[in-house]
Description:
β2, α2 and β3 form a beta-alpha-beta unit. α4 crosses α5. The protein starts with a strand and ends with a helix. It has a 7-stranded parallel sheet, with helices on both faces. Strands 10-9-8-11-12-13 form a 6-stranded parallel sheet, sandwiched between helices. The protein is α/β, with parallel strands linked by helices. It folds into 2 domains: 175 residues, Glycogen Phosphorylase B (Rossmann fold, 3-Layer(aba) Sandwich), CATH 3.40.50.2000; 174 residues, Rossmann fold (3-Layer(aba) Sandwich). 48% of the residues lie in helices and 18% in strands.
Amino acid sequence: MKIFIITGEKSGDMHAANLVKEIKCLNKNLKIKAWGGDRLINEGVDVIKHINSLSFMGFLEVLKNIFSIKENLDLCKRNIIDFNPDLILLVDYAGFNLRIAEFASKKNYKVYYYISPKLWAWKSSRIKAIKKYITKMIVIFPFEKEYYKKNNYEVEYFGNPLIDELNIQKSKSIINSSKSIISIFPGSRFQEIIKILPLMLSIIDDYPNHKFIVAGVSSFNLDFYKKIINNNEVDIVFEDSYRILRSSKAALITSGTASLEAALLNVPQVVCYKTSFFSYFIAKYFIRIKYISLVNILNDKSIVSELIQFKLTKENLLNSLNDILNKKNASKLKVDYSNTQKMLALNEGSPSKDIANFILKTI
């Protein structure tokens, strides 16, 4: 049996790798090829194209790289035909993967989608393509199941796979420091880091009694981060986000998976986001939800502070960080976090294991 996996971002690579690990435990005779990253490589998957060359953020950035994206689509289609898999497993990365889904469906491949496009946030019209081209959809948030049901499409939900990653990482020791740690998560894409990290660093001198750690990603080298960090006194720790969060008193986080990870680990946080004016303007026009952080979206209320675009200033960062460093506010936040944690743990088992069972049974 052969499976072809396509993921284009770090979080998708992580979830795909944890799923592959469980699939291999159930069936050792699988052949798996993928477009993915280091985590899939570590699971013994033959990665044809690495995610480091795939991720483009924002409308303007996509337009600038439109020819590269088309070349990647054509290459991916050729890879699929050459491999001729029994199943194509698409993981997140909607703009790219829905185009592959259309191609694959027309070629009569079985197509499963793991981690749904965020139709509830924007581009709800994509539901037509999903109904037409996706054999099975596996979602990772409870409200998504209800969303799809209202749109007359049945999906599968087994809990959130971040639970599995937490269980993998919880055995690691925390980072020892004589000072309380404030962690900085500036994102994993070039455009995010160069826009957001300098603003996050601007507050460091105001907290002489705290230690700051920047969560680095391996797709950028140490010199890249040092040029942005300049003379600020911070440590850079690569590819160890859970250990950094578990060691932190508070965190400044670029909106994304890390925000949800912080909530699952009870770390008070401020969510930050900034993009090009053009991308922000387009997103503001199309996006239909009140919040951008998954914590707030899941609870349908403002639990963590969101400093978006023009609100991402030094003054606002200082005010928001001071709020969560206050013991009373931090305790209240952890109560709200507990509701989020209950939502995502469907049962006491492993979501990735349950999904692996489902995939192998239904292929």
